[in-house]
Design brief:
The chain is of the alpha/beta class and 414 residues long. The protein has 14 helices and 19 strands. The protein folds into 2 domains: 138 residues, Alpha-Beta Complex (Aspartate Aminotransferase, domain 1), CATH 3.90.1150.10; 255 residues, Aspartate Aminotransferase, domain 2. Helix 7 links the parallel strand 9 and strand 10. The chain is globular, with a radius of gyration of 22 Å. The protein binds pyridoxal-5'-phosphate. InterPro entries: Aminotrans_V_dom, Cys_dSase_SufS, PyrdxlP-dep_Trfase, PyrdxlP-dep_Trfase_major, PyrdxlP-dep_Trfase_small. It catalyses: (sulfur carrier)-H + L-cysteine = (sulfur carrier)-SH + L-alanine. Pfam families: Aminotran_5.
Length: 414
């Protein structure tokens, strides 16, 4: 199946795969613009999960019976599919976790707690999601290391001069979000990786908003670690990934202990299993892993380049529409500059929460709040923003519906 038409997505065709998009509320069709929080799931993914439960449900790695063998093969091959999807060398570099947050914590605990100490520094950006910001903040507090933040400019771009100033020989880890979930900024992570590596530091890339929406090749970026969540890319909840360079994962101690992650256990000591199982203790999210692999195949068939173009086009269109109104403030790079498929905005007279609740009456789903970037919102001088975030099945017409709904909210609030 190829659903992209040269450089444009065949959105009408794609929408047929998503049963939830047919929903109506009081006769009004759903307009789902909350994809930054989680995407909808196509039939192909729902069917793959359902087929596992219906026909070969069993625990993996433990049984010699047919069902367990089938489940084990499917689960292990899911790691291969994900490895291909992000250009990793093989399944050894792909650890299944439950989400981006767990992947961040895995590295922070397994690597950070052992390697960091007083005098060491972790460099983050001012636009980090709490998943990385809070995690590294805590690890720094526990180890005596210091966390530092690369500034952003007035249009939400990373100040690379400041990055070069902050990243020094004291830096042990740079943790940077690839695409900001609040600003839509696409950060130059491969440039950051070069700077980090020049100082013998590692780079952890938060790919939660980038892997679902554009081609991401971990070797091209030269990421040491990269995390993302399956549920934001047509996969099920409970499916997350930590990519790590093989030699780094080999050197690291496990994060969680227990069954499956061991090779040999005696009363005296235990030896760890080979990669990636060393980091997957206990019964994993089998159905979710299988569903995630199906989601990777689904997105691959559409074409990640086409998806990135579609995302950018919708964001540009939304920015242009918002620019028609004097009372709307948008955040992040201005119209004309490439960005991720989301726009955060505020309207002078209407609080973001009120706005999101009123436009829900029009069956338009957006998000309001701090989007797990409270320090960034403090910096922007706002307590909350509304955010419309787009995906492969969204259209310009849906953005028009959003704009009309906002107009009505404006009338209500005078
Ligand atoms: C940039 C970014 N990082 C991390 C996360 C955390 O993802 P999860 O909640 O799936 O762990 C999100 C989720 O919104 C995100 O947008």
């Amino acid at each position: 199946m190829t659903v992209s038409e040269s450089d444009h997505l065949d959105v009408e065709r794609i929408r047929e795969d998503f049963p939830i998009l047919d929903r109506e509320f009081d006769g009004t069709p759903l307009v789902y613009l909350d994809n930054g929080a989680t995407s909808q799931k196509p039939d192909q993914v729902i069917d793959a999960i359902s087929e596992y439960y219906r026909t070969y449900n069993a625990n993996v790695h433990r049984g010699l019976h047919h069902l367990s063998q089938e489940a084990s093969i499917a689960y292990e091959e899911a790691h291969d599919t994900v490895a291909d999807f992000i250009g990793a060398e093989g399944r050894e570099e792909i650890v299944f976790t439950k989400n981006t947050t767990e992947s961040e914590n895995l590295v922070a605990y397994a690597w950070g707690l052992r390697e960091l100490g007083p005098g060491d520094e972790v460099v983050l950006t001012e636009m980090e999601h709490h998943a990385s910001l809070v995690t590294w903040q805590q690890i720094c507090e526990r180890t005596g290391a210091e966390d530092k933040y690369i500034r952003i400019d007035d249009e939400g771009r990373l100040d690379m001069d400041h990055a070069r100033e902050l990243i020094t020989d004291d830096t042990q880890m740079v943790s940077a979000v690839h695409v900001s979930n609040t600003l839509g900024t696409i950060n130059p992570v491969s440039e950051l990786a070069d700077i980090a590596h020049d100082h013998d530091a590692y780079i952890f890339v938060d790919g939660a908003q980038s892997v679902p929406t554009r081609p991401v090749d971990v070797q091209a970026i030269d990421a040491d670690f990269l995390a993302f969540s399956g549920h934001k890319m047509c996969g099920p909840t409970g499916s997350g990934v930590l990519y790590g360079k093989r030699h780094l994962l080999e050197e690291m101690e496990p994060f969680l202990y227990g069954g499956d992650m061991i090779e040999k256990v005696t009363f005296e000591e235990s030896r760890w299993n080979e990669l990636p199982w060393k980091f997957e203790a206990g019964t994993p999210n089998i159905a979710q892993g299988i569903g995630l692999a199906e989601a990777c195949d689904y997105l691959d068939d559409i074409g990640m380049e086409s998806i990135a173009r579609h995302e950018n086009e919708l964001a540009q269109y939304a920015l242009e529409r918002f620019a028609e109104f004097d009372d709307v403030e948008t955040f992040g790079p201005p119209v004309g500059e490439k960005r991720g498929g989301l726009v955060s905005f505020n309207i002078d007279s209407v609080h973001a929460h009120d706005l999101s609740s009123i436009i829900n009456d029009y069956a338009v789903a957006i998000r309001a709040g701090d989007h797990c970037t409270q320090p960034l919102h403090d910096k922007l001088g706002v307590a909350a923003t509304a955010r419309a975030s787009f995906y492969i099945y969204n259209t310009r017409e849906e953005i028009d519906v959003l704009i009309d709904a906002i107009d009505d909210a404006r009338q209500i609030f005078g």
